[in-house]
Amino acid sequence: MYKAVRARMRALVRRVRAARGDAGMVTSEYAMGIVAAVAFAVVLYKVVTSGEVSEELQAIVKRALDARM
C-alpha cells in the first residue's frame, strides 16, 4: 500500500512540475525586458522630439485642424 501511494505522489509531483515548466519569466528576464522597453522608449522619444519629425508632426496637426468638414 505504501509503495502505491508513494508512486502516485511521485507521478503527481512530476505532472505538476511538467505543467509548471516555463510558464513565465524569471526575474532576470523581467529585468532584461524592462531595460529593452526603456531603451526603445528613449529612442522613440529622441526620434519624435527631433527637429524634422517634430516639424512634420506639427504640420500634420495644422493640416488636420485647417481641413474643411
SSE blueprint and pairings:
Elements: H1 2-20, H2 27-48, H3 51-66
How would you portray this structure in words?
This protein is an all-alpha fold and 69 residues long. It is built from three helices and no strands. The chain has helices spanning 2-20, 27-48, 51-66. The termini are far apart. The model has no long low-confidence stretch (mean pLDDT 84).
- Give the structural class: mainly alpha
Number of strands: 0
String of helices and strands: HHH
What portion of residues is helical? over 70%
- Percent range for β-strand residues: under 5%
Measure the end-to-end span.
83 Å
Largest sheet: none
Spans of at least 5 consecutive residues whose pLDDT stays below 50 are none
Question: Keyphrases for this structure?
Answer:
3 helices, 69 residues, mainly alpha, rod-shaped
Quick take:
With 69 residues, the chain is mainly α. The chain has helices at 2-20, 27-48, 51-66. The model has no long low-confidence stretch (mean pLDDT 84).
